[in-house]
Automatic annotation (TrEMBL):
Annotated spans, Disordered: 634-670
Catalytic activity: a dipeptide(out) + H(+)(out) = a dipeptide(in) + H(+)(in); L-methionyl-L-phenylalanyl-L-methionine(out) + H(+)(out) = L-methionyl-L-phenylalanyl-L-methionine(in) + H(+)(in); glycyl-L-aspartate(out) + 2 H(+)(out) = glycyl-L-aspartate(in) + 2 H(+)(in); L-aspartyl-glycine(out) + 2 H(+)(out) = L-aspartyl-glycine(in) + 2 H(+)(in)
Keyword Lipoprotein: no
Subcellular location: Apical cell membrane; Cell membrane; Membrane
GO biological process, one term: protein transport
Keyword entries, A-Z: Cell membrane, Glycoprotein, Membrane, Peptide transport, Protein transport, Symport, Transmembrane, Transmembrane helix, Transport
GO molecular function terms attached to this record: symporter activity
Family from the record: Belongs to the major facilitator superfamily. Proton-dependent oligopeptide transporter (POT/PTR) (TC 2.A.17) family.
Name by which UniProt lists this protein: Solute carrier family 15 member 1
Pfam families: PTR2
PANTHER family xref list: OLIGOPEPTIDE TRANSPORTER-RELATED
Purpose: Electrogenic proton-coupled amino-acid transporter that transports oligopeptides of 2 to 4 amino acids with a preference for dipeptides. Transports neutral and monovalently charged peptides with a proton to peptide stoichiometry of 1:1 or 2:1. Primarily responsible for the absorption of dietary di- and tripeptides from the small intestinal lumen. Mediates transepithelial transport of muramyl and N-formylated bacterial dipeptides contributing to recognition of pathogenic bacteria by the mucosal immune system.
Length: 670
């Protein structure tokens, strides 16, 4: 750091307190909004699953592409401080737009609880999401780099700790918000009619973003603010372009080779700029294999969550929903980061091993590959258990329906016999349970639960299947004015046919009379089996991501810190695209095989990365820059010296000339 920090607490600049609190609130805002976004698309905007998923992923990808924009603006034009302020305002406006777009009362003219002008809500939410992507992505590389800027050159250890705490704040904020916003969404709210409260679920993240902005501004007087050094990115592009052109012009063997191809820019560009570009290119080259890590990492939210839907989420009396398993990642981050920093790394150091940042990142990649091997093993276990269940289902249901048909034939005239058409033969999606009723009575029966209505079931007929969530459910059966209740508990992913016997007596309770046939057993493989894979991927993340964040800062030249952070985040965006490409191209019939494929790809990439890392030499950009500046100053001194010498010589020559001329004059006079 070039400036001086006035206030320090325990050897840390006080200003970083505002930066980490800002990051905590911003991540709360981002992840909180993201947690309910797909549901908002589906249930508020009434989009189908495909459209909701594509827009969601497009938004996430955009959030990792915009950092480039923010970094260029910060490093070349506004500086990090102003860029963070301006883009945070854009971000907060986006969040407010989302919250407003989710108020159904605004267009609910007929007051039936549904918006009447959907275009208004769609347009406002899309504008909101675009502003959020611009804001969150734009400030992301700046906040991390700005935090790093607050430390002096000799505060390497403190800066490393800062990046760990920074990562803890990311995960603390995201953990809290992914727990809180779904609860807020589940509340009912509205002026004219009550609906699920998406406006509150978006409103609280919007408020947190405003808090983030205010906290950041409050710290204003304490920050070290590095001045932007002109349009650096344009200079970089021009310099690289010139080096390539010049190299091409001098391709013939008659010209002596230069140490580095960038040295071909020396004719026109400053040596310092060339050295800085070399530093950035070296790091960017090293980044090439990194997206593969994110390809595996980001499947937590997709493939792993889908895997959890085929598992049993009962942890004693606590029921964990499949998507809630994702919170294991931030929880583990909060425990693993301090353990790594205060126990594991010092222990490795004590053993005399030099566990360099690039070695840590390599180990991080291997851990992620191990996580996917664990996921494959769990998948095999699920597949085996499903095969057994299906076998059970086929054998038991054959016997069962043979029995039912006998009853039907006995009680029901052929015109009343309704054929069974849509038997479920595979597990219901998303951990739901598929339920249907068979009415063995001579009168029609109506069956309902708060979440679904099976409709009027004619005598000797079947209802359609209804999908219901896990937990205790109470069915109400009606026949004319008589009713009774039947309760039962459901697990995850089962299918049941409930048989209403002809002898059913309506009363307060018909618990004993109804018989249940378990067509498909509930998921038997426990969700806890996913914990090892979460553990390995998170340990990998700590070694890879926390280290990578700090590495990207420490190896970047002073005028391109944010740009290199953006390069780091760009690897996340590419990783997300690879998921789509590989999953599309590979189209493996078995999910476990896809997991093994991803694990193998990462091991291969990790091998390449370790070779690249072996040839990388760590640098201290500040030292190199200082050296160049010193050389320039020395050159300046030399030049000054030479100039003075020349002046003296010229004066001497002039005086000689004058003497000569004087002599000549004298001679002519004589
Ligand atoms: C790509 C990452 C650097 C993004 C980072 N994510 C995390 O720290 C995750 N462990 C959070 C979890 C809730 C998915 C971030 O900055 O958000």
């Amino acid at each position: 750091m070039a400036g001086t920090i006035n206030k320090e607490v325990c050897g840390y600049p006080l200003s970083i307190f505002f930066i980490v609190v800002n990051e905590f609130c911003e991540r709360f805002s981002y992840y909180g909004m993201r947690a309910v976004l797909v549901l908002y698309f589906k249930y508020f905007l009434r989009w189908d699953d495909d459209l909701a998923t594509s827009i969601y992923h497009t938004f996430v990808a955009l959030c990792y592409l915009t950092p480039i924009l923010g970094a260029i603006v910060a490093d070349s034009w506004l500086g990090k401080f102003k860029t963070i302020i301006y883009l945070s305002i854009v971000y907060a406006i986006g969040q407010v737009a989302m919250a407003v777009s989710a108020i159904h009362d605004i267009t609910d003219t007929d007051r039936d609880g549904t918006p009447d002008n959907m275009t208004f809500h769609v347009v406002l939410s899309m504008v909101g999401l675009f502003l959020i992507a611009l804001g969150t992505g734009g400030i992301k590389p700046c906040v991390a780099a700005f935090g790093g800027d607050q430390f002096s050159d000799h505060q390497d250890r403190q800066r490393r700790t800062f990046f760990s705490v920074f990562y803890l704040c990311i995960n603390g904020g995201s953990l809290l918000s992914t727990i809180i916003t779904p609860i807020l969404r589940a509340q009912d709210c509205g002026i004219h009619s009550q609906q699920k409260c998406y406006s509150l679920a978006f409103g609280v993240p919007a408020a947190l973003m405003l808090v983030a902005l205010v906290v950041f501004i409050v710290g204003s007087g304490m920050y070290y603010k590095a001045e932007p050094q002109g349009n650096i990115m344009l200079d970089v592009c021009k310099c690289i372009g010139f080096a390539i052109k010049n190299r091409y012009r001098h391709r013939s063997n008659q010209y002596p080779k230069r140490q580095h191809w960038m040295d071909w820019a020396e004719e026109k560009y400053d040596k310092l700029l060339i050295a800085q570009i070399k530093m950035v290119l070296k790091v960017l080259f090293l980044y090439i294999p990194l997206p593969m890590f994110w390809t595996l990492f980001d499947q937590k939210g997709s493939r792993w969550t889908l895997q959890a839907t085929t598992m049993n989420g009962y942890f004693g009396s606590l029921v964990i929903q499949p998507d809630q398993m994702q919170t294991v990642n931030p929880i583990l981050i909060l425990t693993l980061v301090p353990i790594m920093d205060s126990v594991i790394y010092p222990l490795i150091n004590k053993c005399g091993l030099n566990f360099t940042p690039l070695k840590r990142m390599t180990v991080g990649m291997l851990l992620a590959a191990i996580a996917f091997v664990c996921a494959a093993l769990v998948q095999i276990e699920i597949d085996v258990s499903r095969k057994q269940l299906l076998y059970l289902f086929i054998s038991s249901s054959h016997f069962y329906f043979f029995f039912l048909n006998l009853i039907f034939r006995k009680h029901c005239p052929p015109s009343h016999q309704h054929p069974r058409t849509d038997d479920i033969t595979s597990k219901p999606q998303e951990g739901n349970n598929a339920i249907r009723f068979v009415n063995g009575m001579k009168t029609a029966v109506n069956v309902s639960i708060p979440a679904a209505n099976f409709g009027l079931i004619e005598p000797f007929s079947y209802s359609n299947y209804s999908l219901i969530k896990n937990g205790k459910v109470t069915f109400t059966l009606w026949s004319g004015s008589q009713s009774c209740e039947y309760s039962t508990d459901f697990g995850f992913g089962s299918s049941y046919t409930f048989f209403i016997p002809s002898t059913l007596v309506f009363g307060p309770n018909c618990q004993e009379s109804i018989t249940a046939a378990e067509d498909i057993k509930p998921n038997s493989v426990h969700m806890a089996l996913q914990i090892p894979q979460y553990f390995f991927i998170t340990a990998g993340e700590v070694m890879f991501s926390v280290t990578g964040l700090e590495f990207s800062y420490s190896q970047a030249p002073s005028n391109m810190k944010a740009v290199l952070q953006a390069g780091w985040l760009f690897t996340v965006a590419i990783g997300n695209f690879i998921v789509l490409i590989v999953a599309e191209l590979a189209k493996l019939p078995k999910q476990w095989a896809e997991y093994v494929l991803f694990a193998s790809l990462l091991v291969a990439v990790c091998f390449i990365f370790s070779i690249m890392a072996y040839f990388y030499t760590y640098i201290d950009p500040a030292e190199i820059e200082a050296q160049f500046k010193k050389n320039v100053n020395e050159d300046d001194e030399d030049n000054k010296h030479k100039l003075q010498k020349t002046e003296v010589e010229m004066n001497k020559r002039d005086s000689i000339k004058c003497h000569d001329e004087d002599d000549k004059d004298k001679q002519t006079k004589m």
